[in-house]
Specification:
- By secondary structure, the chain is mainly alpha-helical.
- The chain contains nine helices and three strands, in the order H-H-H-H-H-H-H-H-E-E-H-E.
- A three-stranded mixed beta sheet has the order 1-2-3, with helices on one face.
- Strand 2 (250-259), helix 9 and strand 3 (285-295) form a beta-alpha-beta unit.
- Helix 3 (78-105) runs antiparallel to helix 7 and helix 4 (115-142) packs antiparallel against helix 5.
- The radius of gyration is 25 Å and the shape is elongated.
- The two termini are 46 Å apart.
């Protein structure tokens, strides 16, 4: 029941992000076009990419909740990882676009800053900060890769909107006091944002690739599993222990040595004990696969 509620919360957050991005995209592009604000227009096109990213994340979250089937016996959890990779690509492309627009602005006369564009940038900044805090908290709570990717996308927008606020604000000061360098506040801020967004895109892309390539969980997590397994008296040794993320859940695979004289029923009971212990203490573990090997006292 708890998993169902968490899934519904994640889907709701996905819809909120998608609708918010659509509204902000229309607002930024409209105001940026009417009042000739390059940084706001660039931010608006960046937000258009966010609409695609939010749609991909929402779709992936719905797919990832599907139960395992004949074609996907380990479930559909990696759908969220794929969407996270898509968001990383979109962020990378957005950073390239912002960099291009920012550098191009240095080779033309700076546009006059608009108070309406400034207010629009502030609204976007506040809205994106609220969305980021909401989605990152929920994403971490339910361990949703798609929602965490959406949150990081919102964080990139916070950077972009903050740059727009600073850039337009400096341009307004430059216009008022005839300070030329301040009139180029937009592109200067845009270049800084490019670096920040590229950093986010790289980190998200690396994490997605690691998961798709079946990278093991952290050594500390494996040590935790090892301690829980060895706490079962019947376990004489651990021959192999592996664990990997599969989207929003973890799969554990282990081989252990037990007394070779035990019956099949006794071995089955040991497996149930270990599996129950690990899953009771780790809500994100969806499956524990255990293979028993015979152990004899003379092995030491």
């Amino acid at each position: 029941m708890t998993h169902f509620i968490s899934s519904k919360s994640a889907i709701l957050a996905g819809w909120i992000s998608l609708i918010s991005n659509i509204v902000l995209t229309i607002l930024k592009i409209a105001v940026g076009t009417i009042f000739h604000s390059p940084v706001l227009l660039a931010d608006g096109y960046h937000n258009a990419g966010d609409v695609v990213a939010s749609g991909a994340a929402l779709t992936s979250m719905r797919i990832s909740q599907r139960p395992a089937d004949e074609d996907h016996p380990y479930g559909h959890g990696k759908a969220e990882v794929i969407s996270s990779a898509i968001v990383a690509i979109i962020l990378g492309l957005a950073a390239i676009y912002i960099a291009y627009e920012s550098i191009s602005a240095f080779f033309s006369e700076p546009e006059k800053a608009s108070m309406i564009a400034f207010i629009t940038a502030i609204i976007s900044l506040v809205a994106k900060q609220v969305l980021y805090v909401y989605t990152i908290r929920l994403g971490r709570k339910v361990n949703s890769k798609g929602l965490i990717a959406t949150a990081k996308d919102h964080l990139a927008d916070v950077y972009a909107s903050l740059a727009a606020v600073i850039g337009i604000g400096l341009a307004m000061v430059g216009d008022a006091y005839d300070i030329l360098i301040f009139s180029y506040g937009d592109p200067i801020a845009g270049i800084i944002v490019t670096v920040l967004v590229f950093k986010l895109a790289y980190e998200m892309g690396k994490e997605s690739i690691d998961t798709l390539m079946e990278k093991s969980v952290e050594p500390e997590r494996l040590a935790q599993f090892q301690a829980m397994i060895l706490s079962v008296p019947e376990v004489k040794r651990i021959d192999r222990l592996r664990a990997r993320e599969h989207g929003h859940y973890v799969l554990v695979d282990l081989r252990i040595g037990v007394d070779g004289h035990l019956t099949i029923q006794e071995g089955h009971d040991i497996i149930r004990k270990i599996k129950g212990s690990i899953m009771a203490e780790n809500d994100d573990v969806d499956e524990v696969l255990i293979h028993l090997n015979p152990w004899y006292p003379d092995e030491g």
